[in-house]
Every structure is written in structure tokens, then in C-alpha cells.
Amino acid sequence: MLQTRTLTALLAIFAIAQSAPAQSTSPRLGRWKLKSTNPAPASNVMTYEKFGESGMKITIDAVNKDGVKSQWSYTTNFDGQDEPITGNPGADHGAVRVVTPSINEIVYKKDGKVTQILTNVLSPDANTIAVIYMRQDADGKTSNVTFAMYERIE
């Protein structure tokens, strides 16, 4: 009987220890592939990695329809502060703020001007991210709105 209680206690401690990091880890971490009808080689994969205490590094790996590869990235602490973007010709800074636990607002800028605003929505099952992209023209008016779905691949 004592062995059963000891085993049960050890399993409970193990379960708590295993669940503790999961609670402090963002459900967005991992790799996400654009759900697209575009034929290969076109693809787009977002990778979200832990950065610092509570931040995230975002890396976008894309291949256009002609097979040309690109990669760009930035980090965020989800505080709405501009952070440098590397590798993206259309934006040199990005700022991310949390609207709700499942919704982030992302603002991309080039030379201090807003070029795009994204609304990034994580599904309740944490297996899909929907993104609304709103491009801004030189006058700051929305010039184009598109929608994309990403599915978790890792």
C-alpha cells in the first residue's frame, strides 16, 4: 500500500512539474504553415520561438511562385514598442501588443510610417492562426485588406 501511495505521489509531482512550464509557455510557440491553394514551390512558414523572459522571436520563411526564397524576422515583448525587423524590404520596425490572450495586433513600419496593420487570432484549440492584413498607403489610409490562415505544423 505504501508503494502505491509513493508511486501515486511521485506521478502527481511529475505531472505538476511537467505542466508548470506549459502554463508559462505561449500556445503560439512552434511552426505554422500558410494554408494556401497556390501551387508549389510557393509557401510561407512562420516560426515563433521563446525570446527572453516573456518575449517571442518571429521568423518568416517564404518561397514565391518562382521559387525565390526569403527570410525575415524580429523580436517582441508584446508591449507595443517598435523593434527592428531584419530582412523585410517593406518594413524596418514592428510592434506587437496583446489585445486579448488569443488576439495580437501587429504594426509594421518603414521609415517611421505605418505600412501594415495585422490582427493575429489564435483559435481556441491553438492549432490555427488567422491573420487579417491591412496595408496602408502613403497617406495612412487602408489600401488593401487580405486574410490568411496558418496551421500548426510543429
Please tell me the overall pLDDT: 86
Q: What is the strand tally? A: 10
Could you estimate the helical fraction of the residues in percent? 10-25%
Report the portion of residues in β strands: over 45%
Regions with little confidence, pLDDT below 50 for 5+ residues: 1-23
Using the CA coordinates, give the radius of gyration.
Answer: 19 Å
SSE class: mainly beta
In the sheet with the most strands, the strands line up as 1-2-3-4-5-6-7-8-9-10
Assign an overall shape: globular
* Helical segment count: 1
Written as H for each helix and E for each strand, in order along the chain, the element string is: HEEEEEEEEEE
The description of the largest β-sheet is: 10 strands, antiparallel, barrel
Termini separation: 42 Å
Give the tags:
1 helix; globular; mainly beta
Question: Please, could you describe this protein's structure?
Answer:
With 154 residues, the chain is mainly beta. It is 15% helix and 53% strand. It is built from one helix and ten strands. A ten-stranded antiparallel β-barrel has the order 1-2-3-4-5-6-7-8-9-10.
Give the structure's gist in a few sentences.
The protein is built from one helix and ten strands.
